[in-house]
């Protein structure tokens, strides 16, 4: 499932391609035909993301998209070609088009409905003006592990499996610690590191979390080869040596997701 930095990039791409002018909207697959007809020809006035939720504003209606595990956008320039495959939503104008396939959610919302979605989400490190105080209030009272809390979108929006594993490694925090056992200073460090890492990810379009001294060039090691992209410390590195201490990276199923950590570096 794409993490929050990708959804923020999609908001920027949609605004760039379709913003401030009428868009032709259709549903070649047919499953969103009624909703598409309601916003066809309207102007895209806003595009924003909150966590893993994308919102495209068409005057008084909001298109709400959640990609889920299998959804994806394809952008192209020039006139759109004939639809191929299961395209849930197509946006187009004379200069560009975008096809949405396989989302978990593709629906129209009123402004009140949109507010309700925001209300059930935690703060997003990539949203302007967000801070971690609301998330800390929930974390500091919870017996749930910090690893599970970081993935709970009601606590913190946009963080997925990669950022969860990497931020805990970078700060040396054991993933199994209950949230209520963290200090406020530790939480502030988690929030600040997520803000920095996710902004970098949104800009680059990939997740890189290793510090300069641990890059392939600095360590004389081969670059990581993985369809998830950048250089990381523990994510998907189970049974491999930790880049910092050489201890074997561990993995387990934790709250229905794969968790990765270094037992030597993450003892706090």
Helix-strand pattern: HEHEEEEEEEHHHHHHEE
Low-pLDDT stretches are none
SS-based class:
alpha+beta
Helix content: 25-40%
Provide the spatial order of strands within the biggest beta sheet.
1-6-7-5
Q: How many helices does DSSP assign?
A: 8
Number of domains: 2
Could you tell me the mean pLDDT?
96
Please give the alpha-carbon distance between the first and last residues. 29 Å
CATH architecture of the largest domain: Orthogonal Bundle
Q: What is the CATH class designation of the largest domain?
A: Mainly Alpha
The largest sheet, given as strand count, sense and whether it forms a barrel, is: 4 strands, antiparallel
The percent range for strand residues is 15-25%
Write down the CATH topology of the largest domain: Helicase, Ruva Protein, domain 3
Taken from the alpha-carbon principal axes, the silhouette is globular
Global Rg: 20 Å
Total DSSP E strands: 10
Key features of this structure:
268 residues, alpha+beta, N-terminal domain of MutM-like DNA repair proteins, Helicase, Ruva Protein, domain 3, 2 domains, four-stranded antiparallel β-sheet, 8 helices, 29% helix
Protein architecture, described:
It is a single chain. This protein folds into 2 domains: 4-119, MutM-like, N-terminal (N-terminal domain of MutM-like DNA repair proteins, Alpha-Beta Barrel), CATH 3.20.190.10; 133-261, Helicase, Ruva Protein, domain 3. By secondary structure, it is an alpha+beta fold. α1 crosses α7 (184-204). It has 8 helices and 10 strands. 29% of the residues lie in helices and 20% in strands. The longest helix has 21 residues, at 184-204. The mean pLDDT is 96. The relative contact order is 0.12. β2 and β3 form a beta hairpin. The strands form 3 sheets. Strands 1-6-7-5 form a 4-stranded antiparallel sheet.
